[in-house]
Amino acid sequence: MKDSLYIRIEAGDPYDTGSLMPLKPDGETLTFGRSSQTNDTDVSFISPYVSRLHAEIYLQDGVPFIKDLDSKHGTALNNNLLEPNMPKQLQSGDVISLAKGVILLTYLNTQTDETDLTMEFTSPLQPAETQITNGLHIIPERRQISIDGEQLFLSGKHTDLLVFLYRKKNQAVSSDEIKIHIWPERMVPGSNEIPDVGNDEINALVYRLRKKLGHYGDSIVTVPRYGYMLQIN
Fold first, then answer.
1. End-to-end Cα distance, the chain
2. 3-class DSSP state for residue 66?
3. Fewer CB under 10 Å: which end of the chain, C or N?
4. In sequence order, what are the residues at sequence separation of 6 or more whose Cβ sits closer than 8 angstroms to the Cβ of residue 198?
5. What is the H or E stretch that residue 200 is in?
6. Are strands 103-109 and 95-98 parallel, antiparallel or unpaired?
7. Beta bridge partners of 222
8. Could you tell me whether strands 29-34 and 43-45 are parallel, antiparallel, or unpaired per DSSP bridges?
9. What phi, psi does 199 have (nearest 5°)?
């Protein structure tokens, strides 16, 4: 049974999208945290927003559970924040985010849902002879964007924002999450506080991105007093 249970990494340096981490047997835990010389976790990320010992996943009588280890920026399951040190049962297909979405994971039970482990792309790739001629199409792994069949070239920050919103499409994304993902260089060295980015700067970036997307710019919806959401099929 254990051999069919995996965590798939959707976003989280230094791992490639689609990397698979098998769960450990009953009685052992798969730990997640930040890389450091003094701390050793099974799955280690380099983001300073991930706590040194952030979360763990384990089997109890063959049933998978996740637990947040009192991390600073939290662990969410299907967009619901977990209470620290309170185990929550996992179901195949559950989406796990660490540190307000800095890390995105998916729990997979390949025995029950027949998941294709070779599929790494969150947006299906089209055969070379197939051209998409309508709509807004995004392949986040390639940072490739097209509108009505024409490739759209954006600057780094615009692409960063659109790809990030796409990875969490049809979900409200907070301003703090946007600050962390889009302006990591603003972080104060030695600190894991939210980058010093004003809401006016976020609003200006969103405004320019909407203009570049033309009539598809309306897909980026403002969530009052919270942030933004990409509404897309």
1. 34
2. strand
3. C
4. none
5. helix 199-212
6. antiparallel
7. 228
8. parallel
9. -65, -30
Give the pLDDT score at 135.
Answer: 86
- C-beta separation of 219 from 166 below 8 A: no
Tokens of 123: 């947006």
CA atoms within 13 A on the CB side of 208: 12
What pLDDT was estimated at residue 79? 84
pLDDT at residue number 114: 47
Distance between CA atoms of residues 34 and 130, nearest Å: 41
Q: Are 105 and 62 in contact (CB under 8 A)?
A: no
Sign of CA dihedral 79, 84, 86, 91: positive
pLDDT in tens, 100-123: 888 889 898 877 654 444 444 444
In the DSSP assignment, the letter for residue 41 is -
Encode pLDDT of 27-72 as tens digits.
899 999 997 777 789 999 988 889 999 999 999 999 999 999 999 9
Residue pair 13/45 in contact by the 8 Å Cβ criterion: yes
In the chain, what percentage of residues exceed pLDDT 70?
A: 85
Please give the backbone phi and psi of residue 29, each rounded to the nearest 5 degrees, phi first.
-120, 145
CA-wise closest residue to 212 among 140, 134, 130, 150: 150
Q: Exposed (0-12), middle (13-18) or buried (19+): which is 134, by Cβ within 10 Å?
A: exposed
Bridge partners of 22? 6
Strand order in the sheet with 63-68: 43-45, 29-34, 55-60, 63-68, 88-89
Per the DSSP assignment, residues forming a β-bridge with 103 are: 98
Model confidence pTM above 0.90? no
The residue written with tokens 């952030």 in the block is 54
